[in-house]
Structures are given as structure tokens and as C-alpha cells.
């Protein structure tokens, strides 16, 4: 017995992939809608009964019922009791498109390339790499397993139920500051020694968004931006995308060499300098108090902006965290970038910018274009966590764990490598600056490590004539994992040394 034309068409058209997360009934519904939009199934066409379609696709009849109910709820079919299911076309429909030169299934393949030219950017080339290894050394990310999942669910749910939330969503504009802005200002004034109001503050999705907005305001083509020799690759990409020229200055045990700037650059030749507030990325070297004063004086004299990135303020293990330079900036020379909630899940973290009021006013205009709505639920939750002291408690709790991990990693490296690598234990942060002496080819080290189920991202490898080091992030590894990772790294290191001796 031959199948009906509709059954034959659906047999060619519909492909079910049970390995993906999209439910089967959604997959099939979308493909039938696509067929209606392309006029393969015309108005009034009867669709197969649930038993027939179930056998055709090898799925449960209840799934077929769900498919037809989904199509009916969207207005694509009419289910007539005791008669069947019939195609209808919504009044505001998308014009049908017939792929006359292709098979039915090929008409669902979207074009891979544009039919028109556009500007691609070398500066923004992705640094992401495909990872299949079970063990990874990153540049110093927090451990999500330390975050109390049930607590976040409770906090988020409570924020969703706040009656004021709907009214906030419906607001077109407001002349008052939000609770979040006020709470964040109070928190930063207390923890970082600021004396700011919400006029000096904007909240963004991330530090990268903050830096992007600041760069668009501050930089134009051929402006000179100074960064430390070996620096944050993401920040450099953002600066270069504006057309700015990135130049490096030496970094030693006291941080950026300010004397070098004075000796090699003249007044008005520098537009901005990018510094890390606590630990230079990637070397973890701290800018000394003396050099901070020198840099502030030089910025005032040379008329350049200081972009102070406080990316790891929350992770201070030894002693008290130094107050940001921006907290003592009386001349408006510093733009301060920070992050709130590093002891929270990434989706609950937020970036922020602190700067003089005139710059923040312009930055808010950019933010309106990029992220007009923001995340009101996140802001509501963070406001409450700040007010109730939960942010502070989570930071304190996690600091103890990360400090133990730093010390345990140091012990493992000492025992395993036996003076073949050197490092200094930083006073905070989630990474060590691990130097190999004598030098080895780090790309080869990464290649050998991958053979032993250990992934070293290319973005943590730093090698030139005078440098052979990796930024060894330990935050996401517990002590058992640290021991395993160090052992695997040593095996990879031995393989590289052996290959070099045979060459």
C-alpha cells in the first residue's frame, strides 16, 4: 500500500535528532511550520493521524499529540474532532519561499557565507579553543562548585517575586537612583575607600563591556595606550579595535616602570595607560605605593588617563588589600573598572565603572544603546545580598579555600619539579606566574600535556627572548585535582626535555 503524498513529503522533510537538548515535539513542530511557510503544505492539507506519524518518525503517539497541540496553539493547524488535523495559515504569515532547485531537506540549510562583503576584524579574533580534556589550567577563574546552588535559587526566586519588579520593567525613565545604585555606592565607599555618589557610577554586564565603553569614549585612531610588557590580551584587543596604538613598558618586582615612561614619552603623546589595581596581569606583580604616587603625578603632568582595572579585588589572602588609586584621585585622572560578585555564579556577576560625572554621563548614553534593559532581577538580588552582608560573607568564606589551594599548589610544585620552575606566591588572586628555567618551548609543552588529558590554553603561555612562563590558574581546582594536574604537567615537561635532548 502506497503512502499518501503528504506522508511521503513528511518522510523526506522531517529529521529527528534525539541526541540534542531540544525536545522532539519542538523539533518536528518547527520543521512542519517551515514546510507550511515554504508552501510545501498548503492550507487545508490533512496531516497524518497520530498513529501514522508515530510509526513514520519512530516516536511515541503522545509525542505526536504534543506536536499537533503545539502547532494548533501557534495557529498553524486546526484540530477537528473525529475528522483530523488540517493545515491553516495564520493571517500574518511569512511569505512562502520555494527552493525549486533543491531537495526538500536541503531547503532547510541556512547559508554559510554572506552574499555581500563586510569588515572583519583581526583584533577581535576568538581566543577560544576546543577542549576535550578532563583537566584544564586556565588563567585564574573561580570554582563554581564553591557556590551554594540552593541559596542562589532561593535568592533569585525571591527577587522574581518582588512586587516592585514589574513597575521597574514598565518605567520609561526615572529621576531617582535605583536601590542597586545606592547599595553599590555604599558598598564601594566602605570597601574601597571611595567617596562617590551614583553620578560617578555605571553598572555593566562585565569588565570587558566596561572597558569597551570606556575605550569608545576615550580613544580614537592612532592614540597611544601604554600597557605592561606581557599584558591582558583581552584589553589589548579592545584597545586595538578602536584604532589605538598599544605600546608596552617594562614590569619588574615593583610593577610598571614609571621612570621608563618619563624617559621615553613626552607630554601629550600618551592618551591612556592601562594598569591593574592589585596584581599585574599576567605576572601577578603588585604596583608599589611609591610608583602609584609617581604614576598619579605623571598622569596629571602629561594629561593622560589612567584605566585602573581591579579584576581580582575579592581575592586578597595576605594582609589588607591596597585601596585603589582612584580612591585618592582628586584631579579626575582615573577611570576605575571593577567587578562585583566574583564569589557568585557568572550570570550573577556585574561589572562597573567609576569615573568623574561628565564621563559617566556619556558612558550611560553608550550603555543605553548596548544594554538598555539591563538585568533588573540581578540588580534586585545583588542589592539584597549587599544590604544583608551575604556578599561579604561569601567572599570571606571562599578566600580561606583559595588561600589553602594556593599554598597546596606551591607545595606540589616544590615537591614535583625540584627547582626546575620558579614562582612567587602572590598576596592574592587565583593564579601563579610559573617560570621555566632553563627555557623550553611552551607550545610543545601544551602539545605533550594534551596527550595526558591536560589542556593548557594558548592564552596562558608567555614566551619571548626573555620570558618562558605560564599563568597557572588554580582557583577552579581542588587539592586532589591540583596534585593530579601538577603530576601531568611534570610528565609533559619531562617529555619536552627528553625530545630536546634527542634533537
From the coordinates shown, what is the CATH architecture of the largest domain? 3-Layer(aba) Sandwich
Q: DSSP strand (E) fraction?
A: 5-15%
CATH superfamily of the largest domain: Type I PLP-dependent aspartate aminotransferase-like (Major domain)
Secondary structural class: alpha/beta
Number of domains: 3
Q: Note the total helix count.
A: 16
Mean pLDDT over the residues: 87
Question: How do the helices and strands line up, and which of them pair or pack?
Answer:
Blueprint: H1 5-13, H2 24-37, E1 46-47, H3 50-57, H4 61-73, E2 77-80, E3 84-87, E4 135-137, H5 149-160, H6 164-170, H7 179-192, E5 201-204, H8 207-218, E6 224-228, H9 233-241, E7 245-249, E8 251-252, E9 255-256, H10 258-264, E10 272-276, H11 289-302, E11 305-309, E12 334-340, E13 350-354, H12 357-370, H13 376-387, H14 390-417, E14 421-422, E15 431-436, H15 442-451, E16 454-456, E17 461-464, E18 467-473, H16 479-502
Parallel strand pairs: 4-16, 6-7, 6-10, 10-11, 11-12
Antiparallel strand pairs: 1-3, 2-3, 5-13, 8-9, 12-13, 14-15, 15-18, 17-18
Helix pairs in contact: 2-4, 3-4, 5-13, 7-13, 8-9, 14-16, 15-16
InterPro entries: Aminotransferase_I/II_large, HTH_trans_reg/aminotransferase, PyrdxlP-dep_Trfase, PyrdxlP-dep_Trfase_major, Tscrpt_reg_HTH_GntR, WH-like_DNA-bd_sf, WH_DNA-bd_sf
Keywords: DNA-binding, Pyridoxal phosphate, Transcription, Transcription regulation
GO molecular function, one term: DNA binding
Amino acid at each position: 500500500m502506497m503512502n499518501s503524498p503528504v506522508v511521503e513529503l513528511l518522510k523526506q522533510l522531517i529529521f529527528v535528532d534525539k541526541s540534542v537538548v531540544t525536545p522532539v515535539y519542538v523539533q518536528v513542530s518547527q520543521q512542519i511550520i517551515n514546510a507550511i511557510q515554504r508552501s510545501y503544505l498548503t492550507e487545508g492539507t490533512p496531516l497524518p493521524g497520530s498513529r501514522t506519524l508515530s510509526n513514520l518518525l519512530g516516536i511515541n503517539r503522545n509525542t505526536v499529540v504534543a506536536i499537533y497541540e503545539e502547532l494548533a496553539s501557534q495557529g498553524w493547524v486546526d484540530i477537528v474532532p473525529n475528522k483530523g488535523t488540517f493545515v491553516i495559515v495564520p493571517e500574518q504569515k511569512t511569505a512562502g519561499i520555494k527552493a525549486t532547485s533543491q531537495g526538500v531537506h536541503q531547503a532547510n540549510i541556512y547559508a554559510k557565507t554572506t552574499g555581500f562583503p563586510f569588515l572583519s576584524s583581526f583584533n577581535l579574533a576568538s581566543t577560544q579553543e576546543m577542549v576535550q580534556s578532563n583537566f584544564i589550567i586556565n588563567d585564574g577563574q573561580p570554582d563554581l562548585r564553591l557556590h551554594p546552588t540552593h541559596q542562589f535559587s532561593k535568592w533569585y526566586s525571591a527577587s522574581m517575586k518582588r512586587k516592585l519588579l514589574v513597575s521597574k520593567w514598565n518605567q520609561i525613565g526615572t529621576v531617582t537612583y535605583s536601590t542597586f545604585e545606592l547599595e553599590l555606592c555604599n558598598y564601594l565607599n566602605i570597601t574601597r575607600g571611595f567617596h562617590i555618589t551614583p553620578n560617578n557610577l555605571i553598572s555593566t554586564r562585565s569588565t570587558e563591556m566596561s572597558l569597551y565603553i570606556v575605550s569608545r569614549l576615550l580613544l580614537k585612531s592612532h592614540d597611544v595606550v601604554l600597557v605592561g610588557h606581557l599584558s591582558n590580551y583581552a584589553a589589548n584587543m579592545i584597545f586595538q579595535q578602536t584604532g589605538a596604538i598599544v605600546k608596552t613598558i617594562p614590569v619588574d618586582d615593583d610593577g610598571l616602570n614609571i621612570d621608563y615612561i618619563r624617559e621615553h614619552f613626552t607630554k601629550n603623546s600618551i592618551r591612556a595607560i592601562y594598569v591593574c589595581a592589585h596584581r599585574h596581569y599576567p605576572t601577578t606583580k603588585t604596583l608599589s605605593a611609591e610608583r602609584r604616587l609617581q604614576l598619579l603625578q605623571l598622569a596629571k603632568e602629561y594629561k593622560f588617563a589612567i584605566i585602573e582595572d581591579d579584576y581580582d579585588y575579592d581575592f586578597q589572602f595576605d594582609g589588607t588589600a591596597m585601596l585603589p588609586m582612584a580612591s585618592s584621585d582628586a584631579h579626575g585622572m582615573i577611570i576605575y573598572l571593577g567587578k562585583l560578585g566574583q564569589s557568585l555564579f557568572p550570570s550573577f556577576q556585574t561589572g562597573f565603572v567609576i569615573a568623574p560625572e561628565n564621563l559617566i554621563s556619556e558612558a550611560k548614553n553608550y550603555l543605553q544603546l548596548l544594554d538598555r534593559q539591563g538585568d533588573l532581577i540581578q540588580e534586585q538580588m545583588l542589592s539584597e545580598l549587599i544590604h544583608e552582608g551575604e556578599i561579604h560573607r561569601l567572599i570571606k568564606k571562599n578566600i580561606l579555600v583559595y588561600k589553602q589551594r594556593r599554598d597546596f599548589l606551591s607545595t606540589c610544585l616544590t615537591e614535583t619539579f625540584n627547582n626546575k620552575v620558579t614562582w612567587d606566591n602572590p598576596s592574592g588572586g587565583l593564579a601563579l606566574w610559573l617560570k621555566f628555567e632553563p627555557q623550553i618551548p611552551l607550545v610543545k609543552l601544551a602539545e605533550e600535556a594534551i596527550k595526558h588529558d591536560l589542556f593548557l590554553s594558548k592564552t596562558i603561555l608567555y614566551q619571548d627572548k626573555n620570558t618562558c612562563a605560564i599563568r597557572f590558574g588554580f582557583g577552579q581546582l581542588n587539592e586532589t585535582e591540583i596534585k593530579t594536574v601538577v603530576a601531568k604537567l611534570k610528565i609533559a615537561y619531562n617529555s619536552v626535555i627528553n625530545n630536546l635532548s634527542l634533537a
